[in-house]
Amino acid sequence: AQSVTQLGSHVSVSEGALVLLRCNYSSSVPPYLFWYVQYPNQGLQLLLKYTTGATLVKGINGFEAEFKKSETSFHLTKPSAHMSDAAEYFCVILGFKTIFGAGTRLFVKA
Amino acid sequence: EAGVAQSPRYKIIEKRQSVAFWCNPISGHATLYWYQQILGQGPKLLIQFQNNGVVDDSQLPKDRFSAERLKGVDSTLKIQPAKLEDSAVYLCASSLAPSGGSHNEQFFGPGTRLTVL
């Protein structure tokens, strides 16, 4: 069985501050892991993905995530938050079924 | 490249009525997915098609929900009769090939927001 857990349903940061959104997974086989973003009134959009190979993956809009097998984590980071980053972020695990985390809503304060 | 199209964007019905949603995936995408996203939750996979065959419908409430993809292109999701708890956004997505066991990106449509009164 596979699952993902996103820690914190809401995260608030100041503009220019570090963004850290946490995701832990459970999988009996090597996982494929994704981060998707959902902007207000828009469809889901892929930020980045980990399949195999390099454990630090870079995505769009300055986001990156590191796959840590020992910690079963795939946390999403961005060095400096921008107002336009305010959105809902979903950690997703792909196996024989697509499973979304519950989501983390990011608020960015001016 | 045109994205995943869905219609209608919004629908309001009363409980026990029926409703249908339509999805047209990206041209050439073999796999089509329907998700249910209840407010405050992540999307939940309802059904996955590979061409016109069902790959996974384990989380589809089959007593009231049905879906088809007759020609392996567009798809319809139906609810009959609707219940209050069916209020949600219904998302359609498509990918080139099955996501299970591979890493093809799923492309999502804008969704249909259903309100059941």
Task: Please give a handful of descriptors for the protein shown.
heterodimer; A: 110 residues; mainly beta; six-stranded mixed sheet; five-stranded antiparallel sheet; 0% helix; B: 117 residues; seven-stranded mixed sheet; four-stranded antiparallel sheet; 47% strand
First-to-last CA distance of chain B: 37 Å
Molecular shape of chain A: globular
Q: Could you spell the SSE succession of chain B in H and E letters?
A: EEEEEEEEEEE
Q: What Rg of chain A is obtained from the alpha carbons, in whole angstroms?
A: 13 Å
**Derived structural class of chain B:** mainly beta
First CA to last CA of chain A: what distance? 42 Å
What does this structure look like?
The complex is a heterodimer of chains A (110) and B (117). Chain A is mainly beta and 110 residues long. Chain A contains no helices and 11 strands. In chain A, strands 2, 4, 5, 9, 10 and 11 form a 6-stranded mixed sheet that branches. In chain A, strands 1-3-8-7-6 form a 5-stranded antiparallel sheet, with no helix packed on it. Chain A has strands at residues 3-7, 10-14, 19-26, 32-38, 44-50, 56-58, 64-68, 73-78, 87-94, 98-100, 104-109. The model of chain A has no long low-confidence stretch (mean pLDDT 93). By secondary structure, chain B is mostly beta strands. Chain B is 0% helix and 47% strand. Chain B is built from no helices and 11 strands. In chain B, the strands form 2 sheets. In chain B, strands 2, 4, 5, 6, 9, 10 and 11 form a 7-stranded mixed sheet that branches. Chain B is globular, with a radius of gyration of 13 Å. The chains are: A mainly beta (110), B mainly beta (117). At the A-B interface, strand 4, strand 5 and strand 10 of A face strand 5 of B.
Short recap of the structure:
Chain A is mostly beta strands. In chain A, 0% of the residues lie in helices and 57% in strands.
Topology of this protein?
The complex is a heterodimer of chains A (110) and B (117).
Chain A: E1 3-7, E2 10-14, E3 19-26, E4 32-38, E5 44-50, E6 56-58, E7 64-68, E8 73-78, E9 87-94, E10 98-100, E11 104-109
Chain B: E1 5-7, E2 10-13, E3 19-24, E4 31-37, E5 44-50, E6 53-56, E7 65-68, E8 75-79, E9 88-95, E10 107-108, E11 112-116
Parallel strand pairs in B: 2-11
Antiparallel strand pairs in B: 1-3, 3-8, 4-5, 4-9, 5-6, 7-8, 9-10, 9-11
